[in-house]
Design goal:
With 278 residues, the chain is α/β, with parallel strands linked by helices. The chain folds into two domains: 84 residues, Leucine Dehydrogenase, chain A, domain 1 (Rossmann fold); 124 residues, 3-Layer(aba) Sandwich (Rossmann fold), CATH 3.40.50. The chain is 40% helix and 16% strand. It contains ten helices and twelve strands. The strands form three sheets. It has a six-stranded parallel sheet. Helix 1 packs parallel to helix 10, helix 6 crosses helix 7 and helix 6 packs across helix 10. The model has no long low-confidence stretch (mean pLDDT 97). The chain binds NADP nicotinamide-adenine-dinucleotide phosphate.
C-alpha cells in the first residue's frame, strides 16, 4: 500500500492564514528584522522569501543588510541596536555567516525575547529543560505537520537522524516533550537501518541525499524528510521517496513537505514574540 503524502505547502498556507488573522487582531503590526551579511545567492533567496511572506501576513519588514566584510563588532553592534529597538519584535540572522565571523557569539547577542529562530543558547536551554520559549523553526514546522496528520507521539518510538543545533537536537527535544521515546542517530551510528527500523516516527535530517531507503523503514511508519538537495534532475531529500512511499504509512515529499513549514513557523514565532510584549 502506498503512504499518505503530507502536503506541507497546504499546511503552511493554513498556518500563515491563521498568523495573518492573529496579526490583524493584535492591532500593532509585529516587526521582523532579517539580517543578511554578505551576498551569498542562496541566503539572498531565503531572506527574500522570508521578507515577502512577512509582509503578506501583515508584519513589518525591517530587513538589514551588511557587507561581506563586516566585522564581528559591526554585526554585534547591529544586533544590540535591534535588541533595543521597540519596533523590532523578532531578529533572524541568516546563516551561514561569512567565515571570519564567530556565528555563535553573534547569535547569542540576540535577546531571547526576540530570538525567533530559537537558536540562542538560552532558547536551546529552555527547550532542553522543557520550559516555554521560542523554538527553532524547522523542527517546530515538523511538529505542526505531525499534529496536522494526527500522528500519535506519546509513547511512540521516534528516531531522529541528525544532531545539528538547527534541526536534529531541537527536533529530539520537541518529540521528547511530547512523550515520545526518542533515539538520535548521527554519522557514527552503527547499523543505522536497524535503529531506524524501530521508528514509528522517523525524522531524516542528515543532509545526505536519499540516505534512507526501504530497508530503513518500519512498515506503516510516519517518515518526515527535512533534507533538501539540489540535483540535476531536481530537488530531493534524505529519503528515497519512491521506494519508501511503498512501505511508510505517512511521508513528506521534497519539495513541498517540511520546506514551506519553516518560514510559516518563523512568522508564528514572530507573532508570539510580539504578543508577549503587547
Ligand atoms: P548538518 O548541520 O550538516 O547536520 C547533519 C547531521 O546529520 C549531523 O549531526 C551528522 O552527524 C548527521 N549525519 C551525517 N551523515 C550521516 C549518516 N550517514 N548517517 C547518520 N547521520 C548522519 O545539517 P542540518 O543543518 O541539520 O540539515 C540537515 C538537512 O536538512 C540538510 O539537507 C539541510 O539542507 C536540510 N534543512 C532543511 C530545512 C528546511 O527548511 N526544510 C531547514 C534546515 C535544514 P555528525 O553530528 O556526527 O556529523
Amino acid at each position: 500500500m502506498s503512504a499518505r503524502v503530507l502536503d506541507g505547502a497546504d499546511v503552511a498556507r493554513q498556518l500563515r492564514r491563521s498568523v495573518a488573522a492573529d496579526v490583524a487582531r493584535l492591532g500593532a503590526a509585529p516587526g521582523l528584522a532579517t539580517v543578511l551579511v554578505g551576498d551569498d545567492p542562496a541566503s539572498q533567496i531565503y531572506v527574500k522569501n522570508k521578507r515577502k511572506q512577512c509582509v503578506e501576513v501583515g508584519m513589518r519588514d525591517l530587513h538589514r543588510h551588511l557587507s561581506a566584510e563586516a566585522s564581528q563588532e559591526e554585526v554585534e553592534s547591529l544586533i544590540e541596536d535591534l535588541n533595543a529597538d521597540h519596533q523590532v519584535d523578532g531578529i533572524l540572522v541568516q546563516l551561514p555567516l561569512p567565515k571570519h565571523l564567530d556565528f555563535r557569539a553573534i547569535i547569542d547577542r540576540i535577546s531571547p525575547a526576540k530570538d525567533v529562530d530559537g537558536l540562542t543558547a538560552i532558547s536551546a536551554g529552555r527547550l532542553a529543560q522543557g520550559r516555554p520559549g521560542l523554538q527553532p523553526c524547522t523542527p517546530a514546522g515538523v511538529m505542526t505537520l505531525l499534529d496536522h496528520a494526527e500522528v500519535p507521539l506519546s509513547g511512540a518510538r521516534a528516531v531522529v537522524v541528525g544532531r545539528s543545533d538547527l534541526v536534529g537536537r531541537p527536533m529530539a527535544q520537541m518529540l521528547l516533550a511530547r512523550h515520545a521515546t526518542v533515539t538520535i542517530c548521527h554519522s557514527r551510528t552503527r547499523e543505522l537501518a536497524e535503529v531506524t527500523r524501530e521508528a514509528d516516527v522517523l525524522i531524516a535530517a542528515a543532509g545526505v541525499p536519499q540516505l534512507l531507503g526501504r530497508e530503513h523503514i518500519r512498515p506503516g511508519a510516519a517518515v518526515i524528510d527535512v533534507g533538501i538537495h539540489r540535483r540535476e534532475t531536481g530537488l530531493c531529500g534524505d529519503v528515497d521517496f519512491d521506494a519508501v512511499k511503498e512501505i511508510a504509512g505517512i511521508i513528506t515529499p521534497v519539495p513541498g513537505g517540511v520546506g514551506p513549514m519553516t518560514i510559516a513557523s518563523l512568522l508564528r514565532n514572530t507573532l508570539d514574540a510580539a504578543a508577549a510584549t503587547r
